[in-house]
Amino acid sequence: MRAELTSSGVIADTVPFSSAKGFGHADLIGVCKSLASNSFIATENLSCEQTHLTKEGESAVSVGSPEAVVFSLVPEQGIGQDELNKVAGAAAKAGLAKAMQSKWLAVEKVDGAKIVKRAVGSITDTIQQQLKDVSVSGSAAALAPADLAVLKKRGLLSVVTVKSLKVSKGAAFDSWGIKAVADLTHEMLTKGTWKEQVFKPLNLEAEGKPPTGGSLHPLMKVKAMFREIFLECGFEEMQTQQYVESSFWNFDALFQPQQHPARDAHDTFFIKTPAEAPTVPAEYLERVKRTHEVGGEGLADEFASKSRGWRYDWSEAESRKNLLRTHTTAASSRTLYQIAEKMRAGGEFKPQKYFSIDRVFRNEALDATHLAEFHQVEGFIIDRNLSLGNLMGTIADFYRRLGDEFADLKFKPTYNPYTEPSMEFHAYHAGLGKWVEVGNSGVFRPEMLRPMGFPEDVSVIAWGMSLERPTMIKYGFKNIRDLFGHKIDLNLVRTHPIVRWT
Ligand code: FB9
């Protein structure tokens, strides 16, 4: 092969080459694959159809088609069908039917016996002629497609696809026989053998190995994206790994009255064991108790709000009931209390921004888009004299970073027990062709902040949304159970690309 390539530069087809050299073609192909893997040769796949006569086809060439054989066995005066079958042998069955179909022979009944007689004086055996032509030319190219189909259907010839190679010089032809290596080793460098070594060409098109290991669930992909935006906007992440929370931090600290419907077991999962939470700092508890009962009356000026309170007997026992937190605003209240304590201990007050993205639990009716738990996204900013305008601007800036569908937000007044004023905000989603409620927001009430110890001019603006709703919309999930829960198709974890928001 090397000599052939040296002299002629190419082996046009390995089939004639192998038969000319007396090699088996299959063996030659194996050798070519090995030579090509070392770039000594380059190969190009060839494929052609070869037509071969079958055994029956060969027989038809030598003695004629079955119908011609049967015709030749019928004498002028005719012959009984049974006798003809005997003398015609293998040709009888197919041959008689074809001969009758071609109206070469006919069967008559004479005295109840079937007699086969010639219906024509002579015949032309075109089948035999066609097969002879193929046999001589080695190709069926001259045959009409319909004729070729008849010969194939009658099993007289077969068409096989023969795969072969066109062979030319490879990149390493000049170093024939010196196996190229992929890696430059320390030994080659120290011994200098790299100078004679042949290296495999770099395949710059090679794709990297698919990353093994874990993949993020779509929810966690979206969480990572939201987290990135919060961080780039200067927000700090809150500690949120406490799913079991006291009613105090989840509701009372937020000035949510103890008879509020959200605190009912129909909306909240209360914990049996341990049913009671450890108490909170006694002085703070007292301030929360008084603020719920009578607002700012009787409280030291630094804690008093101008509120009248909810006018009911506040129960410490109720506040100590353990539950699964219904919102991450419970973490916000804990975080704000810690900021207030540091401030009261002499720390300098400075504006701060915090966020949380974590699981919350609601004892609500389940449906295709609601489970008893979801991930809440929440952000808040604490500073002096913040206004609703600051809140709207912060929300608009945050969501614009998410993508075009949030470019046009609309704000609508609403009610929240722990924020006043409060706003829902909506975005027009072009994909859904409708306005979609995106989240809720507001300014935390003085009855929440003052008992913590914040001065009157310190205000906190905050907003929240869920993680599941945007993820379902972006990934096109119709049922939340396809996204979250024990029945999801884990393969989606590996296959779903990170969602693009714009
Ligand atoms: O996520 C919600 N909607 C949404 C968000 C993004 C989105 O993106 C699409 C790609 C375009 C689409 C929709 N919502 C909040 C609104 C509704 O889905 C609502 O029906 C369901 N809400 C949840 C609560 O339901 C029990 C979503 C969840 C929610 C609601 C309010 C808050 C947090 C989560 C809050 C708050 C808050 C308010 C004031 C101060 C602090 C926090």
Helices and strands in order:
Layout: H1 2-8, E1 10-11, H2 14-21, H3 25-37, E2 41-53, H4 55-63, H5 66-72, E3 79-80, H6 81-88, H7 92-101, E4 105-110, E5 113-118, H8 126-137, H9 145-153, E6 157-169, H10 186-191, H11 218-232, E7 236-237, E8 244-246, H12 247-250, H13 282-294, H14 316-319, E9 322-324, H15 329-344, E10 352-361, E11 373-384, H16 388-400, E12 409-416, E13 419-429, E14 434-444, H17 446-449, E15 458-466, H18 468-475, H19 491-495
Parallel strand pairs: 7-10
Antiparallel strand pairs: 1-6, 2-6, 3-5, 4-5, 8-9, 10-11, 11-15, 12-13, 13-14, 14-15
Helix pairs in contact: 4-8, 5-7
The protein binds ligand FB9.
Ligand FB9 is lined by residues 329, 362, 376, 378, 405, 416, 419, 429, 436-442, 462-466, 469-470, 473-474.
* CATH level-4 homologous superfamily of the largest domain: Bira Bifunctional Protein, Domain 2
Can you list the strand order of the major beta sheet?
A: 7-10-11-15-14-13-12
| DSSP, total strands | 15
- Class based on secondary structure composition and strand pairing: alpha+beta
Number of domains: 3
What's the end-to-end separation, in Å?
Answer: 58 Å
In DSSP terms (H or I, runs of 4 or more residues), the helix count works out at 19
The helix fraction, in percent, is: 25-40%
Q: Ions, cofactors, ligands: which are bound? A: ligand FB9
Major beta sheet summary? 7 strands, mixed
CA radius of gyration is 45 Å
The fraction of residues assigned to DSSP E strands is: 15-25%
For the record, the CATH architecture of the largest domain stands as 2-Layer Sandwich
- Mean pLDDT equals 92
Instruction: Say what the CATH topology of the largest domain is.
Output: BirA Bifunctional Protein, domain 2
The CATH class of the largest domain: Alpha Beta
Give unreliable regions as ranges. none
Shape: elongated
